[in-house]
Predict the structure.
Amino acid sequence: MDFRIRTFTPIWTGDVKRESIKFRDTSIIGSLRWWFEAIVRGLGGYACDSVGEEKRKLDVEKYKKGNKPEELICPVCYVFGTTGWSKRFRLEIDGELNRLPFVIVKADERKGHRGWFLGTRESGGLMGTSEVKVYGDSWIKNVLALSLNVSCYWGVGATTILENTNSSIPKYSIYLQIYFTLKKPHFSKDDDEFYIIDNPIIKDKVFKLPMVRPTMWKGALRFAAIKVFEDWIYEKLNESRIDKETVFKERARIAKLFGNEKDSQKDYLGRLCLLAIGGDLPTGEKLRKEIEKINKEFEKWLTDKKYVSKEVPSRSGRLFFYPTFFEEISLDVITPLSRETKTPVRGPIYFETVEGSKGTKSIFRLLYYPFDLIARGEFDEIEKEMKEDLKFLAKALKKMFYEIGFSAKKSSGFGVVEPINDNDVKVDGFKSDEVKDILLNTIHQS
Ligand SMILES: [Zn+2]
């Protein structure tokens, strides 16, 4: 199988000395893997967490005893390899990317300059076309062709900035972009004994740009969604208790959008359900048992409503996240103080932050794709569900961007943004005008 890759935005490699460079196979394979994983999960299948610590190794002992590798690792690891198992294909790349003589380049290559500037031959980005040959079994090549097709619609995976999408969004899906400016992070003084280093900005491996990973966005928005659910319960409880069906319906929105509940969040969500239905909570051992009971009931309810199938208990969410890249990075310093003595408990800690107040905007991107309704052929349902999902999503976005931020340590104030204007929100796809109205109305609501 042969295919051709053409860059449509310049690529910076950090290697300024070279006039031309080959497209890296690791970056192509990385993005194909990223998309194959998304496809597998999108279809309700299981793919292990290839970046997290859950990454599956091939159990060599079991393999030697005759277990098939398909039974020991997930389909993504099977095709792309994992510890103890090599990938099932080979890539050959032909053609080089050439450095552009005059292009707009990143400021961080020239100190004291903000934003972008017109670069010289040495600082220009790389562009070009590469021919890629793939060798492997035919079904593997089909898998790669599928992933490649999707990645061409949606950008070359996790490492390329995607700008033009209006023409090629899958039917019934919504592609949302929010341009935002970070507020300067603040650290509340009375919060913790030690200020824990809490920096969600990491650098992407290929291009060394500061970035927020898709998983980080997902975690932060999911957390915000749980808080929206909590707010909803407290608001309702002002009037009356809430019946079980209504609570479950609302709780299910989180699973529909984000996929299976995390074990660590089930307890909290169960507690909230009990509170909503009963008006208060039992204590001690009784509380633990009741949480377990209501969570079991909720799981059964999800299966009865076909939100989760019996055959495939792991459920993917309807939201797909993209990385965000930042252009400017600077160094901040904090000195942890003891709460009692107000004296430093250790030396200063330096860490990188992203400059927020210089007027450059970053992009948060999200795909809403109700694949489960589409797969079940429930087209009449889509519009209704989409609107309900979107209202809930908009509340979660507002909570994340304005109140909580996208940092793992919620009290740090890291990742809270400046007010979002109408022009900062772009929506493409299904019913885009209505969707935009729903989002903006919710975000502007006080
Ligand atoms: Zn895997």
